[in-house]
Every structure is written in structure tokens, then in C-alpha cells.
Amino acid sequence: MRVLGAIVIILGLATLVFGIIFIPQANAGEQEIADTVAPLTLDEVSEKYDAVVVKYDQIKMAEEPAIQAGTAGPSSMYNYLGQQRALLGLAKASMGTTAFIRMMGIVSIFIGAGLIMTGVVLVRKTS
Questions:
Q1: Among residues 82, 89, 46, which one has the least CA distance to residue 63?
Q2: I need a labelling partner for 22 at 20 to 30 A (CA). Which of 48, 54, 67, 96 fits?
Q3: What is this structure's pTM?
Q4: For residues 2 and 100, is the Cβ–Cβ distance under 8 A?
Q5: What is the per-residue pLDDT across 66-100, written as a single tens digit (0 to 9) for each?
Q6: How many Å apart are CA 88 and CA 74, to the nearest integer?
Q7: Residues 87, 20: Cα–Cα separation, whole Å
Q8: Alpha-carbon separation of residue 52 from 38, 55, 65, 91 (angstroms)
Q9: pLDDT value at position 63?
Q10: With contact defined as beta carbons under 8 Å apart, do 26 and 98 qualify?
């Protein structure tokens, strides 16, 4: 039982360390996203994305038949809104990923602490 307790403690320490590492990584990722979408704030990304999608869909419906027929090329506004949609969509996805990583860091810390306590109980129980 002591060996099992020691293994559980080691696994708990490893999980705890990974949890502690995940949180600063999420913060660094969030800062990178904020730098990329500046001058927008992270709170404004979803609203701006929704507005760009509406405008993009309107222009797309107006221009797409001529583009498909080969009688016209996409306008600069069509291209601009397409690029904005892609950038803001990637920013939204990255924000979700960083939030998930932060949450997993917190969960890992709790799991690691629980494993350490369980391992300590197992070691003490056999003593």
C-alpha cells in the first residue's frame, strides 16, 4: 500500500505542476490575442465578429452571382470583410481555447491536490 500511495502522490504532484503551468500559458495566449486584435478589446471581439458577418453576408449575396458567372470579380469591400471575418473568427476560437486551457489548469490543480491528499492517506494508513 505504501508503494501505491507513493505512486498516487507522484501522479498528484505531476498533475499539480501541469495545472500550474497551464494557467500562465493561457494568460500569455490571451495577451497574444489581445495584441493581434488591437485596437479592439477582447470583450468587443464577439460583437464586432457578428457585425462583420452580417455585412459580409449582405455583400456576398449581392456580388456572388456575378462572381460565379464570371462577369465580375469580388470588390475590395467583399475581400476586406472576408479577411476581417477570418481574423475575428480565429480570435474568437483562440479565446475559447485559452479559456479552456485556463479551466483545465484549475481543474488539474484540484485533481493534483486531491491525488496528493489521497496518496498521503494511503501512506499513513499502512504505517
A1: 82
A2: 48
A3: 0.78
A4: no
A5: 888 878 888 889 899 999 999 999 999 999 999 99
A6: 20
A7: 30
A8: 16, 5, 20, 14
A9: 85
A10: yes
